[in-house]
Design a protein that fits this description.
Elements (H helix, E strand, L loop, with lengths): L3 H8 L4 E2 L1 E7 L2 E7 L2 E6 L2 E8 L5 H7 L1 E6 L5 H7 L5 H4 L5 E3 L5 E3 L4 E13 L2 E13 L5 E5 L2 E6 L2 E2 L1
Antiparallel strand pairs: 1-11, 2-3, 2-6, 4-5, 5-10, 6-9, 7-8, 9-10, 11-12, 12-13
Length: 163
């Protein structure tokens, strides 16, 4: 049997893009920092997003059935930290400049790319929900460096390589 700590240590070596995932509905705007986001298929365009059931904003995502995945650039480390912290939702959204696309979920203006999605299916696995999300709009920026997470630390990757 694999120990949870061994699994976490191994996963720390899996380099991932850092995203802020957001939603908005009757209870306001909510969001969290995520590294568990990936493409499922391009026909129809679909993303998979994982979220801990214990997250204080989990119910808002389930109720709203929409979300935006905002892939962060190198300049967004403070935004990543804010959305991973114990700050309230309003305080989190004071970081950065936000707008909306189709679903109304907040989109970070200068994100590398934002995927605006409708949640089509939710699967429960252990401590997490897996959201299967149909992409309904995409907004790209001119940013050239991505914020990534490797070995429990932020790094940056762009045309010049990894820093």
């Amino acid at each position: 049997m694999i120990e949870a700590s061994d699994f976490k240590n191994g996963m720390a070596l899996l380099t991932t893009a850092v995203s802020v995932v957001t939603t908005k509905g009757a209870s306001g705007a909510h969001g969290f920092t995520a590294s568990a986001v990936c493409s499922v298929t391009d026909t129809p365009p679909t993303l998979l997003v994982c979220m801990n059931h214990g997250s204080r904003s989990h119910a808002h995502f389930v109720d709203n059935k929409t979300l935006s995945v905002n892939v962060l650039g190198a300049q967004h480390e403070a935004i990543s930290n804010a959305f991973a912290s114990k700050l309230g939702s309003e305080e989190r959204f004071e970081q950065g400049s936000w707008s909306e696309l189709v679903t109304g979920a907040p989109v970070l203006e200068d994100a590398l790319v934002s995927f605006d999605c409708e949640i089509e299916n939710i699967q429960q696995v252990g401590t997490h929900s897996i959201f299967m999300c149909r992409v309904v709009a995409i907004k790209q920026s001119a940013q050239e460096e991505s914020l990534i997470y490797f070995n429990r630390a932020y790094r940056y990757v762009g045309r010049g390589g990894i820093a």
